Write a sequence for this structure.
């Protein structure tokens, strides 16, 4: 035993402190989620068993009942518990119910809106049989077929059928089931007795019309003995056997589609492609049931009836900035009030802005041809309480100068002043940075139909309102679900009355003449812009986002920590002032040394200590000057925070800070972004995700050209940057065209002509097949525009564009809604005026969510990356709790917490809980974010893997193919995410017995990863491992050994031999080697394994192996036949 010493005593104290810290960590840890079985007795005296989790509340139980085939048609009921009593609150935790058994209690329809909700639910349930199926099967080649990507070697081979835009909604359709209800309409004008609300005519599947009356006690049929049923489904089942059978068939189809929930109803028109049933209407907008105002539906959000317009926004936003936030509990309360208030402000502001723009449009239509307002002029100024609304006409030209950003509009400052403001905001940012910036918080920008409306909070704060220090505001209804759907505020554009009869995929001759006239306007705008682009640009201040300053400080603090760890002790005071501040201060330090040397040469008789003392005094006076300068610009609290950070930034002038942050931007931030792309820590799939990744790091989108140059070895990132640059260029052109048209009736033709100019194919013309004038003009303009705005020199990238991706991004940025049709981009005119359905407002505002929740989500991701699963579960559970407490359980901001916790639980092996949480995330993402949102896409992919691990391979295939379709429309086949999805498809295909198909997917995934990421990338190693696993299932263990050896080599080189992933691969290699040895011994004994003939072929290439295993015995020698089969499989 080691002798006792004084060090031992100190170590004992340290041990005690460690024990205290461990106890504190235990207190901070929350209970890990667990599965909960919830038994619910229905009004039919039957029992349903729901799968829930321990974080669920009563509101979640109601959601689960709405996704169960036996209870989905039920509305207007309460839940009771034998201990907790009747009418349980939505906020009661399920885990507190002992026993966990509930009963559904039907309630009276005390309000007409409740009866309307019941009708809307029934219509919504049967909508999947008629509303989402594509109307006709088009023979036009797919959008993604243009560009000759596969021929050019730029893309993977599409093994699955190439998806079509016309079939975008087919995933939600159940067309093979007869609709239980053919039509349902409200009957007005009849006199009602007391307690009756309205009558409805229901045309059921056999054509019979049933007259139903809605009342307080439920629903009953007219002309028979009054017997009320609580739901319409119960009533119709009682009076019609045909309906009963059709409804049962529909429920069986729901179960076959997904027996775990996520029933296909409740959708909103929130995507750039409108549902087929909506687009078929030529005059009125046929809303989906969830948004049908005839049955009590709406586009979501608050303040629809103007009840919040006169709220004292200015006073309450100022109060937000003063609420206590020192502890986590205080921040949760503050963040919740901030979120609810800001969310309500956004809803009210957007509605008021759209209403003001529509008022201006109507006025202009009334005075058409008389009034001519210059671009940029103020057309309307309105004051509603504290809200100031200003509407301006957009500029109908492509200006070479950068357009004003959201922050330029929010703050009347020069670019230099705005940059300095944002920089100081960023370097002093804390968890209250969003809430305390009331100017940014109280500003919304809305672009719509060629106009821009700015809404700002400009109310005066009265003295008496500053005395109250709290904000009273209600929680969001339905747990935060049904947020404002911007697409519900669309302006539906005029459409030809004979949309259905026009048919065809090409414009009629009349439409062609109209399109050609507008095409001339587009070309004129482009030519004018080309002239401006030739002019020398004025040097302008580089903009700065506040996030850049925050990332810079984090970088400095991280470097400081690294230096302390390397040295073993903190740096001295003198060094700590200049450490990590970049080249600027290294130069200053070297200059100081040079001046000392000069002084020594000139005045050798002066002692060194005196010189050092004078230098110290000079430095001190300079520091005090700059310190005083920043003190005047910052609040005392912000300056103290900056001073205590240890970065020394409080001693610098604004000019020095600006120069240094530019150096950080150029030398560290941009290369680090590309490095994260290379490591797949970040993997953008479209322009939206690329924008989010750049903005959160404070990077400007005008740096896309530089990102593309830095990503030269990452073809998918470079392609994504090029697509986004071209999309943004087209956005400017489209906005200019829309702003140049005053007559709304002409907008569809003008927009279609613009899209034809941008995406149509008029490359060659005449008998000599020379390049057309339009093609040359478009190419020349794009080259000039991209170079001027992004610093990118375009070459021949336009030939290889995924035009579907360009179209999707353009519609999202410009607020376009299109008809889901297979657009032939190989034709000169892919679009006709009837394809342009509507214009949707595009809004910009500050996001306000839980600061602690975001931080915990990042901590959970970091712990997961490090393999610290317990910590990842703990952080993820706490993050979910914070997001639910602030935003509500069904708000779109909470979906990311559900999704991350699902992934974490999956890695712990808890596939059941992972599935439940990911289903919640998908349900929210589909309804709140959009059917093709990147988060929705990710939920489909993750959920498919979870279903696969639960032994539901066919269900997994259905969801993974949906993810592939959306990836096809966003980033195309040549992307690491698509390659990873191919590996997942291969696992599932192998599970259902399609081993040859699985190997083809693995082959393409391997080629894609090698081409995009390199032969030695970790993701490439994953492809080799997946192929090794697939080969082992065929008993081809010798081939498995060779592929797994490559896996081990890559992982050892990249991660080291001690990494868990390397050790796992080594264990698999050992297993494969043992099985291969068994095979060899069995072969020597005369007992070969069944598929040893495959292994005996040696190290065949995967493509040759595919030919071997997919050939029939009688055709194995036919090389031609094998090649033909392979071509068929790959199409």
């Amino acid at each position: 035993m080691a002798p006792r010493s004084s060090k031992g005593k100190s170590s004992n104290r340290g041990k005690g402190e460690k024990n205290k810290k461990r106890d504190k960590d235990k207190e901070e840890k929350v209970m890990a989620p667990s599965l909960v079985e919830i038994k619910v007795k229905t009004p039919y005296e039957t029992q349903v068993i729901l799968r829930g989790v321990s974080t669920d509340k009563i509101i979640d139980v109601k959601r689960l009942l709405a996704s169960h085939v036996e209870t989905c048609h039920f509305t207007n009921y309460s839940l009771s518990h034998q201990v907790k009593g009747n009418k349980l609150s939505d906020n009661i935790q399920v885990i507190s119910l002992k026993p966990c058994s509930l009963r559904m209690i039907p309630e009276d329809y005390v309000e007409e809106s409740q009866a309307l909700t019941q009708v809307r639910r029934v219509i919504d349930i049967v909508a999947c049989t008629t509303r989402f199926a594509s109307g006709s099967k088009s023979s036009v080649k797919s959008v993604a077929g243009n560009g000759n990507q596969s021929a050019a070697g730029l893309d993977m081979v599409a093994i699955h059928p190439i998806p079509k835009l016309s079939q975008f909604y087919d995933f939600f359709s159940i067309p093979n089931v007869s609709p239980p209800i053919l039509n349902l309409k409200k009957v007005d004008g009849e006199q009602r007795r007391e307690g009756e609300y309205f009558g409805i005519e229901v045309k059921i599947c056999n054509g019979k019309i049933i007259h139903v009356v809605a009342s307080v006690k439920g629903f009953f049929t007219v002309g028979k003995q009054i017997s009320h049923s609580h739901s319409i489904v119960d009533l119709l089942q009682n009076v019609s056997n045909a309906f009963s059978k059709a409804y049962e068939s529909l429920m069986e189809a729901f179960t076959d589609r997904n027996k775990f929930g996520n029933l296909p109803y409740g959708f909103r028109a929130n995507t750039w492609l409108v549902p087929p049933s909506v687009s078929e209407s030529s005059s009125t907008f046929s809303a989906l049931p969830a948004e049908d105002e005839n049955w009590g539906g709406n586009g979501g959000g608050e303040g629809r009836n103007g009840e919040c317009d006169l709220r004292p926004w200015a006073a309450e936003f100022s109060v937000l900035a003063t609420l206590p936030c020192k502890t986590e509990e205080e921040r949760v309360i503050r963040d919740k009030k901030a979120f609810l208030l800001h969310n309500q402000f956004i809803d009210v502001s957007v509605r008021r802005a759209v209403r003001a723009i529509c008022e201006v449009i109507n006025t202009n239509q009334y005075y058409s041809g008389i009034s001519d307002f210059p671009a940029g002029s103020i057309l309307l100024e309105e004051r509603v309480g504290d809200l100031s609304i200003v509407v301006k006409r957009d500029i109908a030209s492509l200006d070479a100068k950068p357009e004003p950003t959201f922050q330029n509009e929010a703050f009347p400052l020069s670019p230099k002043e705005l940059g300095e403001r944002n920089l100081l905001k960023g370097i002093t940012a804390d968890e209250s940075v969003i809430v305390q910036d009331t100017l940014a918080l109280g500003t919304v920008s809305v672009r719509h139909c060629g106009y821009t409306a700015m809404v700002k909070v400009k109310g005066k704060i009265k003295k008496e309102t500053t005395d109250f220090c709290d904000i009273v505001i209600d929680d969001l209804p339905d747990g935060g679900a049904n947020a404002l759907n911007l697409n519900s505020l669309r302006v539906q554009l005029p459409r030809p009355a004979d949309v259905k009869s026009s048919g065809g995929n090409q414009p009629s001759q009349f439409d062609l003449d109209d399109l050609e006239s507008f095409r001339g306007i587009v070309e004129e705008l482009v030519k004018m812009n080309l002239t401006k682009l030739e002019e020398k640009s004025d040097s302008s201040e580089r903009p700065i986002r506040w996030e850049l300053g925050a990332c810079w400080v984090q970088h400095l603090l991280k470097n400081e920590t690294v230096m302390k760890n390397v040295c073993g002790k903190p740096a001295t005071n003198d060094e700590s002032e200049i450490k990590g501040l970049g080249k600027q201060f290294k130069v200053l330090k070297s200059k100081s040394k040079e001046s000392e040397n000069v002084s020594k040469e000139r005045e050798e008789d002066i002692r060194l200590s005196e010189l050092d003392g004078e230098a110290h005094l000079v430095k001190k006076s300079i520091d005090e000057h700059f310190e005083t300068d920043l003190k005047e610009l910052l609040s005392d609290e912000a300056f103290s925070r900056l001073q205590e950070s240890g970065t020394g930034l409080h001693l610098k002038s604004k000019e020095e800070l600006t120069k240094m942050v530019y150096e950080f931007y150029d030398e560290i931030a941009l290369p680090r972004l590309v490095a994260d792309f290379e490591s797949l820590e970040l993997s953008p799939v479209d322009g939206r995700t690329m924008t989010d990744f750049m903005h959160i790091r404070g990077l400007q989108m005008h740096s896309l050209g530089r990102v593309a140059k830095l990503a030269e070895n990452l073809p998918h990132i470079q392609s994504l940057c090029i697509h986004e640059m071209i999309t943004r260029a087209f956005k400017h052109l489209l906005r200019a065209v829309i702003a140049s048209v005053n007559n709304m009736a002409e907008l569809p033709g003008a927009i279609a002509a613009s899209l034809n100019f941008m995406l149509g194919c008029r490359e060659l013309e005449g008998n000599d097949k020379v390049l057309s004038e339009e093609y040359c003009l478009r190419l020349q303009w794009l080259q000039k525009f991209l170079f001027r705005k992004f610093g990118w020199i375009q070459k021949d990238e336009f030939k290889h564009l995924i035009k579907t991706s360009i179209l999707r991004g353009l519609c999202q940025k410009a607020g376009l809604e299109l008809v889901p049709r297979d657009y032939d981009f190989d034709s000169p005119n892919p679009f006709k005026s009837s394809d342009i359905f509507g214009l949707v407002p595009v809004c910009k505002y500050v996001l306000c969510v839980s600061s602690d929740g975001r931080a915990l989500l990042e901590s959970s991701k970091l712990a997961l990356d490090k393999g610290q699963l317990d910590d990842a579960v703990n952080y993820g559970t706490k993050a979910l709790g914070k997001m639910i407490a602030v935003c509500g359980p069904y708000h779109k901001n909470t979906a990311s917490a559900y999704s991350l916790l699902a992934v974490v639980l999956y890695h712990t092996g808890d596939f059941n809980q992972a599935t439940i949480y990911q289903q919640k995330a998908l349900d929210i993402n589909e309804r709140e974010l959009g059917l093709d949102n990147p988060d929705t896409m990710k939920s489909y992919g993750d959920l498919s893997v979870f279903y696969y691990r639960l032994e539901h391979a066919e269900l997994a295939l259905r969801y993974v193919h949906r993810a592939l379709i959306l990836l096809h429309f966003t980033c195309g086949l040549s992307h690491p995410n698509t390659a990873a999805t191919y590996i997942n498809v291969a696992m599932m295909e192998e599970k259902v017995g399609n081993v040859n198909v699985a190997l083809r997917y693995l082959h393409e995934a391997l080629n894609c990863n090698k081409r995009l990421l390199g032969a030695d990338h970790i993701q490439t190693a994953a492809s080799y491992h997946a192929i090794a696993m697939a080969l082992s299932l065929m008993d081809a263990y010798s081939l498995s050994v060779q592929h797994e050896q490559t896996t081990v080599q890559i992982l050892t080189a990249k991660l080291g031999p001690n990494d868990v992933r390397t050790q796992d691969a080594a264990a698999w290699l050992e297993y494969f080697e043992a099985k291969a040895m068994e095979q060899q011994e069995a072969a020597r004994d005369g007992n070969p394994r069944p598929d040893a003939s495959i292994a005996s072929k040696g190290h065949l290439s995967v493509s040759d192996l595919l030919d071997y295993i997919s050939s029939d015995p009688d055709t194995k020698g036919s090389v031609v036949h094998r090649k033909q089969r392979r071509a068929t499989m790959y199409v």
Remarks:
- The chain has a mean pLDDT of 82.
- The two ends are 74 Å apart (CA to CA).
- Residues 328-366 form the longest helix (39 residues).
- Residues 112-135+162-292 form one domain.
